[in-house]
Specification:
The complex is a heterodimer. Chain A contains 20 helices and 33 strands. By secondary structure, chain A is α+β, with helices and mostly antiparallel strands. Chain A has five domains: 70 residues, Phenylalanyl-tRNA Synthetase, Chain B, domain 1 (2-Layer Sandwich), CATH 3.30.56.10; 202 residues, Phenylalanyl-trna Synthetase, Chain B, domain 3 (Phenylalanyl-tRNA Synthetase, Chain B, domain 3); 67 residues, Phenylalanyl-tRNA Synthetase, Chain B, domain 1; 160 residues, Bira Bifunctional Protein, Domain 2 (BirA Bifunctional Protein, domain 2); 89 residues, Ferrodoxin-fold anticodon-binding domain (Alpha-Beta Plaits, 2-Layer Sandwich), CATH 3.30.70.380. In chain A, the strands form eight sheets. Chain A has a seven-stranded mixed sheet with strand order 20-24-25-29-28-27-26, with helices on both faces. In chain A, α6 packs across α7, α11 packs across α13 and α14 packs antiparallel against α17. By secondary structure, chain B is α+β, with helices and mostly antiparallel strands. At the A-B interface, α2, α8, α11, α13 and α14 of A face α5, β1, α7, β4 and β5 of B.
């Protein structure tokens, strides 16, 4: 809302504070003043009226009322002088409301007007407020809208077919040429102001060309109406026409304002365009809006705001806001221009801001020393991120959106977004991998070695819902499978999961935890966080550190290619465990050449250590023989001599 | 002459040797032809043959032992000698991993709130219309809903949307956990927005909610002021300005005194001394009821702030789009 400082000042006998000061006062107590600048002999304030206050504050009157409440000033209201003469309006025009979304329709007729340019005092104010002057009639309606907040419209009486105004739904497909010379196709949800033949205006949004007031007009019909805000807002958005009128009608304008504004505009037109105001007013107003009553508890005011305001001060503030205090127990009557005040909390906000939010102290709450609960999922997410960082991976964040390119390239089934912002962001990603690959390829242009990871949600389209799943994904810019395998096993080990790795899959107790894939020269991985959560734990137990000498032996044998490291180790462990002997074993060599198909030669390095004494050769040989025996029985180990 | 004492002095001196030069001096002093040890032989001339034999042997073995030690130390010093390395050459670059700056700042924020007893929870990113709008007192046809929904929200199938704020978690957790309640909900949110240096389609918010029987605006001020002081590690003041959110009443826009200039006015705060930092308010009674709680009994505050913005302020990042760029030149800086 663009506000003229001098216009605003005209509402008061005493001058307002200087523009800069006033801007600060309004910002701290009512609405943010986004800017203020000098314009000719005036100052222009750009005020960001809050959406719930658009009904009463998108006008100079509204802002003046705010100044009154905040600064405790006396306000002078604009006066209207109406001298009725000539014919009775009822003999000239009839009005019928066929659409319930029209809450009130007030109109007057002025005849013998002289259409011409507006006087300077009107034109200047309009220009300062960003509206181009057109002629003295249209300008007067705009002037009153800026002054009081009520949008008005003037029709050329002689263009109204059948001397009848009907407020109704448009005919589907009906076309209307608007004032700005654009044609608009209407549907039956659109409310129009029509005569017996055609639509003259889109109600509350924009006038039509047909009954436009121009320099030939002699008799005019002035409309001051009230419409359902929801209906106007939805139509304006559907037709994509936003005007100063629709911006006001979209919010809760006071239906009781129509009459005041109508008289005001007639009074101004009489001044600037002469003419005779015909006798009477047509005013269709079925459900009169009356002031609401709200009961306020002072105790609640102080409890919610955290201050200690007295009853007198409260009453004083309420009075300044135009709220009538009906009793000392704070039964309040809310003026109808404040349609936004519905519950006691609304009034508490009013008292708080007028009294000043700076008067509210800063106090920590008094509460039980209940500790914050640990979020287990978050704990493990953080743990995993930390381990990846320790392993020299870099964390990336990617958008939740992907395009056709990724969907095709990776054969994904992805949930489409109804209103994507661009073709690059058409779907919700069902995998983190495509972007990880892209990140690695992009960064390889700068860096030789790239290791990245991301932990974020993926979205899986299911029949009845869209499933969200947290995924740990990443990749490295090489094909060093054993390194990546080591990294992933290390990550899992850090969250208490002793996983196994086979055929590029990570498993725990037979359940798949994730996998590694090769994409060109890149290795990528995925771990399913929900499954990790089932097994993750922080249990750790100290293992005795042995100090007696180790006996180290190598054994070599041929086994089926199918048999993995873990099976070999488990078979060895079976022998060692019952002897209470500490043991370590690692595969030091695997050889497949020159052997029978499907076989491999494996060398295992075994170290044995007794917790209490040094093992002697006899004992060692017995253990090694037992191990070999067990290996050959359980997994078909053929000892190589 | 006390052999024992001499041996001790020499041993002690040996242990204090720090570099090759000192070692050379030591060798010369004790083991050389004119060395101290040789001199001892001169001094035992007058002793009996028996004594000479014992002491001589002892000195000899000590000298041998010392020679071995010296030559060992010589080798070690040679190998480890920093003297040979030009320390002004560039360092061998050591690489570490990096956490995303948003992860780091999010953790910092979470930690501060946890220390004040706020539990950290998360909500779904795919929300239904009821939680995203209706439960927050933004019914169909409400101007705020249209402003947020038609212009700013991504729609999915049926009644599903990508959450346009973290606020839907308010009613979710009221229903799930009841009151009193002290929680923060960080997470990714989505806005249908043309992107530029300060607008993104994917960004991060943290929602805060405290419900109890005696919670006031003064407490909201207290908690947020303390949070900002802990986060910026500075004395920070805040001020409340009137605002409007359908799900809080009263509603506030909260400014903090500029952390760069301590409120004196600088380019970062456009010379005002204040920086707009978050939106907050007292939870609207309708929202408390939508969360299945008695709005007469349970009052409280809620707030929402952008993690991206705090991160940008903290590291002076000038373009929000870096966060989702996947560019290691950016990520390796944090």
């Amino acid at each position: 809302m663009i506000v003229s400082y001098s216009w605003l000042n005209s509402f008061f006998k005493k001058p307002l504070p200087q523009p800069e000061k006033l801007a600060e006062i309004l910002t701290m107590h009512a609405f943010e003043v986004e800017s203020f600048e000098r314009k000719k002999n005036d100052w222009i304030l750009n005020i960001d009226v809050l959406p719930d206050r658009a009904g009463d504050s998108l006008s100079h009157l509204g802002i003046a009322r705010e100044c009154t409440a905040i600064l405790n000033l006396k306000m002078i209201y604009p006066v209207s002088k109406i001298k009725e003469e000539g014919l009775k309006i009822k003999d000239l025009l009839s009005v019928e409301i066929k659409d319930k979304n029209c809450k009130r329709y007030s109109t007057r007729i002025i005849s013998n007007i002289k259409v011409g340019p507006s006087p300077k005092w009107i034109a200047d104010k309009l220009i300062n407020c960003g509206i181009n002057p057109i002629n003295n009639i249209v300008d007067a309606t705009n002037y009153v809208m800026l002054e009081l907040g009520q949008p008005l419209h003037a029709f050329d009486y002689e263009k109204i077919e059948g001397s009848k105004i009907i407020i109704k739904h448009a005919k589907p497909g009906e076309k209307i040429l608007l004032l700005n010379n654009t044609e608009c196709v209407l549907d039956k949800k659109v409310m129009v102001i029509a005569d017996e033949k055609r639509s003259l205006a889109i109600a509350g949004i924009k006038g039509g060309k047909h009954a436009e007031v121009n320099h030939n007009s002699k008799i005019i019909v002035l409309e001051s109406a009230s419409f359902d805000p929801k209906a106007i807002g939805q139509t304006a958005r559907r037709l994509n026409i936003r005007t100063d009128a629709s911006a006001r009608f979209e919010h809760n304008l006071d239906p009781n304002l129509t009459e005041i504004a109508l008289d005001r505009v007639c009074s101004i037109i009489k001044d600037v365009a002469q003419g005779e105001i015909q006798t009477g007013m047509i005013d269709i107003y079925e459900e009169k809006v009356k002031p609401k009553k709200i009961k306020l508890e002072l105790e609640l005011v102080n409890k919610i705001l955290g201050i200690n305001i007295s009853l007198n001060e409260t009453i004083n503030i309420l009075n300044r806001l135009g709220i009538k205090v009906l009793s000392k127990s704070l039964l309040l009557e809310i003026p109808t221009f404040r349609q936004d005040l519905l519950i006691p909390e609304n009034i508490i906000e009013e008292i708080g801001r007028i009294n000043g939010y700076d008067k509210i102290p800063s106090l920590l709450p008094c509460s039980f020393l209940e500790p914050a609960q640990r979020n287990n999922e978050l704990f493990y997410v953080n743990k995993i991120k930390d381990v990846f960082k320790e392993l020299k991976y870099i964390e990336v964040y990617n958008y939740s959106f992907i395009s056709d390119k990724e969907v095709k390239k990776f054969s994904l089934k992805a949930e489409p977004i109804n209103n994507p912002i661009s073709s690059f962001f058409k779907y919700l990603r069902p995998s983190l991998i495509p972007q990880i690959v892209d990140n690695i390829e992009e960064n390889l242009k700068t860096y030789k070695d790239v290791r990245i990871f991301e932990i974020n949600k993926i979205f899986i389209p299911e029949e009845k819902k869209i499933k969200e799943k947290l995924i740990v994904a990443g990749g490295i810019s090489s094909l060093d499978l054993l390194k990546l395998k080591g990294d992933l096993l290390c990550v899992l080990d850090n969250i208490g999961i002793k996983a196994t790795f086979k055929n590029l899959e990570l498993k725990f107790e037979g359940e798949k935890l994730g996998e590694i894939k090769q994409i060109k020269n890149i290795l990528v991985f995925e771990l399913y966080f929900d499954i990790l959560m089932e097994h993750a734990n922080e249990e750790k137990e100290y293992k005795e550190i042995l100090c007696h000498p180790k006996a180290v032996r190598d054994i070599s044998g041929i086994i089926d290619d199918e048999i993995n490291e873990l099976q070999v180790f488990e078979t060895i462990q079976e022998i060692i465990a019952p002897l209470v002997v500490g043991g370590e074993f690692k595969v030091t060599d695997v050889y497949k050449g020159k052997l029978e198909q499907g076989k491999k030669s494996v060398t295992v390095n075994i170290s044995l250590q007794h917790p209490e004494r040094t093992l002697n050769t006899k004992e060692i040989n017995k253990i090694i023989n037992d191990i070999i025996k067990n290996l050959s029985e359980k997994i078909g180990w053929e000892e190589r001599k | 002459m006390d052999i024992f004492e001499i041996k001790n002095t020499i041993k002690k001196e040996f242990e204090e040797i720090k570099n090759s030069k000192e070692l050379r001096d030591f060798s010369k002093k004790y083991l050389g032809k004119q060395g101290e040890i040789r001199k001892i032989f001169g001094e035992i001339k007058d002793m009996t043959l028996e004594e000479k034999k014992v002491i001589g042997q002892e000195i000899n073995s000590f000298a041998k032992e010392l020679e071995i030690k010296v030559s060992e130390l010589e080798k070690t010093l040679k190998k480890d000698s920093l003297e040979k390395i030009d320390s002004s050459l560039p360092a061998t670059k050591t690489e570490t991993g990096h956490l995303h700056p948003l992860t780091q700042v999010r953790r910092e924020i979470e930690n501060i709130f946890q220390l004040m007893g706020f539990s950290v929870l998360e909500g779904p990113e795919v929300e239904d219309l009821w939680h995203n709008f209706d439960s927050l007192n933004i019914p169909e046809g409400h101007p705020a809903r249209d402003a947020l929904s038609l212009g700013k929200t991504f729609y999915l199938r049926k009644n599903l949307v990508l959450r346009s704020h973290t606020s839907p978690a308010q009613t979710r957790y009221m229903k799930k956990l009841g009151a009193p309640l002290r929680i923060v909900i960080p997470g990714r949110v989505y806005r249908y927005e043309r992107t530029d240096a300060s607008h993104e389609t994917n960004f991060y918010q943290i929602e805060g909610l405290m419900l109890d029987e005696n919670i006031s605006v003064a407490n909201l001020k207290g908690v947020l002021e303390r949070f900002l002081q802990e986060f910026f590690k500075k004395k920070i003041k805040i001020r409340l300005r009137p605002s409007y959110f359908p799900f809080t009443e009263p509603s506030f826009e909260i400014d903090m005194s500029c952390a760069v200039c301590s409120g004196n006015g600088c380019p970062a705060c456009k010379k005002t001394g204040w920086v707009e930092i978050l939106g907050a308010g007292m939870v609207h009674p309708n929202v408390v009821e939508n969360g299945g709680l008695d709005s007469e009994k349970w009052k409280g505050f809620a707030f929402g702030m952008s993690i991206d913005r705090l991160t940008m302020m903290k590291y002076k990042i000038n373009d929000i789009r870096w966060f989702h760029s996947g560019n290691l030149k950016f990520l390796k800086q944090f």
